Each structure stands twice: as structure tokens, then as C-alpha cells.
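Human:
I keep going back and forth on a fold encoding question. Comparing notes only helps if you start from a blank page. Show me how you would write down a chain together with its backbone fold. Write it directly below this note and I will take it from there.

Assistant:
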Amino acid sequence: MFFKKKTLEDFSAQRESSGMHRTLSTVDLTFLGIGGIIGSGVFVLTGIGAARYAGPGIVLSFVAAGLLCMLVGLAYAELASLIPAAGSAYAYTFASLGEGMAFLCGWSLIIGYIVTASAVAVGFSAYFSGMMASLGMEIPKAWLTTAPEGGIINLPAVVITLLIGFILAHGTKESSRLNTILISLTLCAIVAFVIVTSPHMDLAKNMDPFLPFGAAGIMTGAAVVFFSFMGFDTVATSAEECKTPEKSLPIGIIASVFVCLCIYSVVAFVLTGTINYTDLDRADPVAYCLRLIGYTGLANLVTVGILFGMITTLIVYIFGQARVFFAMSRDGFLPKSMANIHPKYGTPYFITLVGSVLIAFIAGCVPMLYIVELANTGVLAAFFIVFVGLIALRRHSPDLPRTFTFPLLYVLAPIGMLVCLYLIWALSLETNITFIVLMILGYFFYNSYAPSHRCWEKK
């Protein structure tokens, strides 16, 4: 059974009987992808990545990570046009490499989603507390830092995560509308930051040296900021809630990655050109930059837009992890109760709420950088498997009807696979050991649980 594959007919039958409401259009999916990408890294990791890994070369780190995600996005686009099913990489691997690899891919993806959402919640807390302090309402440090950092719990991160989980449990279309509104406000905040800050750039002072950590720092920085682009995966997880998934999914995936790659590069360049990278080792670099050049009031306004962006990202990640959980539990690899659909709202409400609690716990209790590195390892591993699966599916089933085809597959896919492996290697040894332990635990869970609970063959 480890290598037993699902057919397209199996996926179609599950899609027809899922009970999920099909309400999302191409525009909804594009904004869903942008919302998942734009708030996750540029507002949080630009400063940390520049100060600790790449210096002003963090711009190139974002470009490298974004180009890899463009390759992954092309692979997703072909697979999504073939397999419009919830679960994204999990579903694609099930069709190409079989049940066992699909479970491990889904397990890896869940780790990435949950941990990444936690990192975004921590970033939200940093910006929120900075804005409150500038208004004279400082939150005690004990309620902003984890126990390992000398505090008690990161309370704002916990509260915002639980609130968004509750909203998502009450409907996909409603969440999509909120996401579209908030991401529009976030884009306005980014434009305001770039326009106001650009005249204060001092390239001679702040861009020299451009690569203080050497060329290797670019790729190490790319490994750290990579999770900034992960949100496009959520577009694929929403396949069973799309009106026309075969057309909408490829457009939504590729458009959202390209738009955000451009935005990330511009913001990183302006930020490191205005403030020396040695002063950016903080979780709220954009607001800090505006305050440092004398725009305290605008910093607070931009912070509101940034907070909206982080809220949209949390919406997308909590949405995405719930759909992967849903797909795996529907097949019998996780407890069946996780696949329960709310009779009124048409959402996997139970796992949405459970996942929100788990994300809130990690955000409230685990330090930021460790969260980020673990998220990247999980996502990179899942993307590596996606490349392998696409090559296998193209070789074994070349005649399947495809509305989108990955160009130069046998050249670009191996390049993407090598970059994934390199970025995993560039992360800390402790992070990779933790990930390996989690994957071994996942494999043992699969071997003990799946034989007596799998039910996807009955569909």
C-alpha cells in the first residue's frame, strides 16, 4: 500500500462528495495567494535576515527564494490543473508516488503550515506592541516574550491566532472577502513606505559592503526567508472550494508568487538602503525604519496596514493547514473527526479550531527564529517531493489531459530539487535533526494507524 496510487477518478469522486461550498473565483485565489505570501516574511524577516545572514544582499536572498518558488509554482500549476483536490502537495504525491510518500509529504506540509503561521503571529505581536508603545500604552515584556526568552507568553500572538481560527470556522467566502479588503490596505501601506523612505536612502553608506557575509550569506539568507513565499500553496489546498479549479488554480498560483517577488525585492532594497543592516536585527524593521527617520505618526499608520497583512497571512495559513488535515483524515490517515464539515458553514470547522489552538501554543511559547527555520525545512522537503512526483507523473502518464504544462520540466525541475536540498542543508543542524525526528515519528504513526483506518479505496 505504500506505493498504491490514487486515480483521477478517485479524486473526482471525493471532490463531488466533499460537502464543501464552491465559492472561490480566480480573483479570490490570486488575493488568497498574495495574502498568504505578502505578510509572512517581508515585514518580519527582512531585518533579521539582513543583520544575521546576508547584509544588504538580503535582496538577492529574496530573489533566490522567489525564483525557486516560481519553479515550484509552475509544478503546482500543472498538478493542480490535473488534480483539483484539497491537500495540494499531499494530493499530488498520492497520484504520482503513492500512499506512503503522500502521507510523509502531507505530514511535512502540516509541520510547515503550523510552524509558519506561528512565526507570523509572533511578527504580528512585535508590530502591535511597537505601535502601542509609541502611543504610550506599552505592553509588559513578560506578555510579549516566551519563557526561554525570559518572559511568560506572547499573548498578542495567541489572541490573534485564536480569533482568526474562529472566523475561518464560520465560512470560506466570508474569510475570502475579509482577506481581499485587508490585503488591499496592506498594499497601500507598502506603497506609502516605499514612497516616503526612498528619498532617505544612502546607498554609499548602507550598501557598502553589499555582501558582508560573503556569497554564501545570500543562500543562507534565502534558506531563512524562504517561508515568506509559502502562502501560494494555500491556493492549491482550496481546490475543492473553487468554481473552476482547472483554470483558476494555475493563474492564482503563478500570479501571486510573481507579484510578491517584486514587492519583496523592492521593500528589502529600500529598507537596507535606508538603515544599515547592523541596526535591523528586530521583528518590526519597517516600522522601526520609519520611526528612525522621523515619521512616527506614519509608522503607526503603516503598522496598521502591516498588521492587516499579517492577519491575511494568518487567515491563509490556518485555512491551508486545515485543508491538508482534512484531506489526510478523509483518507483515514488521521482521526476521522478532523474531516467533519459544518452543516451550515461548509467548512472543516473542527480541525480549523484545533489547528488554531496548536498554532497559538507554538507562537506563545517558542522563540521566533527556531520557529522560522523549522517551518522552512518542512516546506522545502514537501516541495522537493512535488518535483519528484511531477517528473514521475509525466513519465508514467504523459497522455493525461493538462490545461497547463511545466516548461522544460527535465531541466528546471532537477534544478529546483537541488536548490531545495541546498537550502535545507544551509539551515542549522539542530533544526534539521528536529525535522528528521518529527518525520520518523510521522512514519511510525502511518505504519501503526493507516492499516486499520485507511478508507480512501472505498470511495
In short: The chain has one domain: 22-458. The radius of gyration is 21 Å. The mean pLDDT is 82.
